[in-house]
Design goal:
globular; 9-stranded mixed sheet; about 15% strand; single chain; about 750 residues; 4-stranded antiparallel sheet
Length: about 750
């Protein structure tokens, strides 16, 4: 929040005090007290109160206290936020501290592409950004020991019970609030999440190992969680080369590089990137020869793609004039003959990113290249709150242009460039390799040894993780079930009705308006961001009317609509796998299903010795799958019948919502499992080097022989569509639901 907004907020506070003199403060004053302002959006932000005195016993937005600025030398990735929403993508984990009785819930909201672009740290274009390039809404690390619950107070003599959340009047940080908000009591995060889901609610009930669980903090720093993509050739992607490949056919000659002065290059770059109001740049030809003019033409076109050139006579002198032939579309649509036929049409590169998900990263790259995001392709999406390394392909963008982004984007690094004939396709990857640090562990060396040996030898139940089902009181699988039941009024109500749980303030207002008026246009006006599912559905209802909910729902992008149905399939699968393991244990039995190629077959009695539990698969319900030939088959039928669905007819009137089904292994055994327990004294230091650290030649961290804290550093590889949270759940023996963890930490969160 800017200083001006803080001053306006302070002015409103003083005005309220003048209007109500009975609440005048005593003589002692608190000046410039940092206050953590928590709105219903649960985006944490720091607001500095004006020098006006405050009453020490006044109940106001707490969780305030000792925030010390992070030193410049501190590595990116150490910042964290206390409150947030647990949201994880497949095979990835979000920032949540899996600590018995002490959880640090991280801020992991999904931002829209526009919001992320606004917040992107650009060293050249936005010099006002911080030197570390971290997100502006993140708070410095806490002073207290990781995982040790410490009451956060608002000044000496202030009781924890007095420190409650309060919404102040003022403008939203992201400009989404157009009208002042009245002060109101806001329930705590733990109270909000008491209506959320637990693992039991979505069928996650069993463990496969017998070791004793222990506690540890996951993702205290997002740099404690690193994901490297495993390509279709089985190689783990690493960023280890920033050089640009030499292309003899088109790379500029030495004359081409040196013919332009530094000032001319700067003017041309500003013209290329539309940084000034000039429509053209004229360069005088000092030594006027045809050869010299040709070199200048070639230099401009090769060094600044998207610019056209022409020769003009001005007052007896020759000038080369550079301009955009197609306006702002020039960079997006370079001349067809500018791309050599002998070079592959796609530039493949390795993208290293910190604290940003894949789609947001693509949007940022698109913005600075001035191209559409759909010319990028990738094999899988990676989560935000982590350091991730993956391969990306882009159509007809040179490695030189991509490498230039390394100079102006923070928390990104592009390298390992090559030109290929084909793009990348979703799902082509073999999996992901994880490096995870669990800090401040309580387990003994023997407990850690037993847990990790079990993970390596047996594995974990391949449950769909909690992020599959949402975090509010309306699980996504309920919407999916209503779609399959063809109950469109229920679909509409489930998506739009008021709900308990942590949500952005404008969504809460939108839902309340919908509940009162049932007017989609009026409710839509409460949404400053229309791209969310609720906004798209309301727009559809405004367009097609309340009697055509199917068409209105169809406005939502297809992938988002199918997410609800897949969530229901996942819900059924989790419950059935728990029943299967409870009924038959960790051994194959006659009637189980195994895959032979892509075809599922039943295990016969005489073949039972040929299979292990790691071969057994279970079906996600659909019209193109078969079911086990034992008790679990009847359990599938009973569950779907209870949900008013016919297991023998999973085809829907609308083709998009017809479920063909699929098969999924019930036990996953991670590959390349290794671990070590390290001791450390400073909770802020990184415990291993990243690819960028290695490129910069940083030495590996040195650990104390007897440190204050212990950490478990784990390495393992998982196949696609597998949840790393479930692997870590098996090691720690912890319920990973945000509801369970927040209830354990109610005192700490106050």
């Amino acid at each position: 929040m800017g200083l001006g907004a803080a001053r306006r907020g302070a002015a409103r506070v003083r005005a309220r005090r003048r209007a109500n003199p009975s609440r005048a403060p005593p003589s002692e004053a608190w000046t410039a007290l940092p206050i953590l302002r928590c709105s219903r959006s649960w985006r944490c932000r720091v607001v500095f109160a004006a020098a006006a005195p405050l009453r020490p016993n006044r109940r106001f937005c707490s969780l305030a206290a000792r925030f010390e600025p992070r030193p410049r030398s501190q590595a990116p990735g150490s910042h964290k936020c206390f409150l947030g929403v647990l949201k994880m993508e497949t095979t990835e984990v979000t920032g949540v501290s899996l600590k018995r009785g002490s959880l640090a819930v991280e801020d992991n909201e999904s931002l829209t592409a526009a919001e992320e672009v606004k917040r992107q740290k650009v060293s050249e274009c936005c010099p006002s950004r911080g030197p570390d390039g971290l997100e502006s809404d993140a708070l410095p690390s806490r002073e207290n020991v990781p995982g040790q619950p410490e009451a956060v107070s608002v000044g000496e003599g202030k009781n924890n019970s007095d420190a409650q959340l309060e919404e102040e009047d003022g403008e939203e940080e992201d400009g989404l609030s157009g009208e002042g908000e009245e002060e109101e009591e806001v329930e705590s995060f733990a109270d909000m999440m008491k209506h959320g889901l637990t693992e039991l609610d979505v069928g996650i009930t069993k463990f496969v190992s017998s070791h004793q669980g222990f506690s540890g903090i996951l993702k205290e720093r997002y740099s404690d969680f690193v994901v490297h993509e495993i390509g279709k050739d089985g190689r783990i992607s690493h960023l280890d080369d920033l050089s640009v490949p030499v292309d003899e056919e088109v790379d500029p000659s030495e004359d081409t590089v040196t013919v332009l002065t530094a000032e001319e290059k700067q003017r041309l770059e500003e013209l290329q990137l539309f940084k000034n109001k000039e429509t053209s740049v004229a360069i005088e030809v000092i030594e006027d020869t045809k050869e010299k003019r040709t070199v200048i033409h070639q230099a401009i076109k090769s060094l600044f793609p998207g610019l056209e050139t022409k020769t003009e006579d001005r007052e007896g002198k020759k000038y080369i004039v550079a301009y955009h032939a197609a306006g702002k579309k020039a960079l997006a649509n370079p001349r067809k003959h500018s791309w050599p036929k002998s070079r592959g049409s796609y530039c493949h590169f390795v993208l290293y990113k910190e604290n940003k998900d894949t789609m947001d990263a693509i949007n940022v790259l698109s913005k600075y290249l001035r191209v559409k995001p759909n010319i990028f392709s990738y094999m899988g999406t990676k989560d935000k709150r982590a350091i991730t390394v993956q391969e990306i392909a882009v159509l007809k963008i040179t490695a030189q242009r991509l490498a230039h982004l390394n100079k102006c984007l923070m928390n990104f690094k592009l390298g390992n460039f090559s030109y290929q004939k084909n793009p990348l396709k979703l799902g082509e990857l073999q999996g992901n390799h994880f490096t995870v640090v669990l800090r401040n562990i309580t387990g003994t060396d023997d407990q850690v040894q037993q847990a990790m040996n079990s993970l390596r030898q047996i594995g974990f139940i391949n449950y769909y993780g909690m992020q599959r089902f949402g975090t509010t009181a309306v699980p996504t699988y309920q919407v999916g079930r209503a779609i399959l039941q063809n109950s469109w009024t229920e679909v509409m109500d489930l998506i739009l009705k008021p709900r308990s749980g942590a949500e952005k303030g404008y969504l809460v207002k939108c839902r309340e308006e919908w509940s009162k008026t049932k007017d989609p246009a009026t409710a839509l006006r409460k949404l400053p961001v229309k791209r969310c599912v609720e906004g798209q559905l309301l727009r559809g209802l405004s367009k097609y009317g309340m009697k055509n909910i199917v068409s209105a729902f169809g406005i939502i992008p297809r992938n988002n609509r199918l997410m609800y149905i897949h969530s229901y399939q996942s819900y059924v699968w989790n419950n059935m796998v728990s029943k299967r393991i409870e009924e038959y244990g960790l051994k194959p039995v006659p009637g189980d299903l195994v895959l032979k190629g892509a075809t599922a077959t039943h295990i016969e009695e005489e073949d039972i010795h040929n299979y292990s539990i790691h071969d057994v698969v279970m079906p996600l319900p659909g019209f193109d799958v078969i079911y086990p030939k034992h008790k679990i088959s009847e359990s599938y039928r009973e569950m779907l019948t209870a949900d008013n669905l016919d297991i023998d007819n999973m085809r829907h009137k609308i083709r998009d919502y017809s479920l063909s089904g699929a098969y999924r292994k019930i036990i996953i055994r991670p590959q390349n499992v290794s671990w070590e327990v390290v001791e450390y004294d400073d909770p802020k230091i990184p415990l291993f080097n990243t690819d960028v650290d290695n490129l910069e030649g940083k030495p590996p961290p040195v650990f104390a022989s007897e440190g204050k804290y212990r950490a478990l550093k784990m390495d393992f590889s998982l196949p696609p569509s597998t949840y790393a949270t479930m692997a870590i759940r098996e090691v720690l023996k912890m319920d990973t639901s945000i509801k369970n963890q927040s209830q354990l930490n109610t005192t700490w969160l106050r």
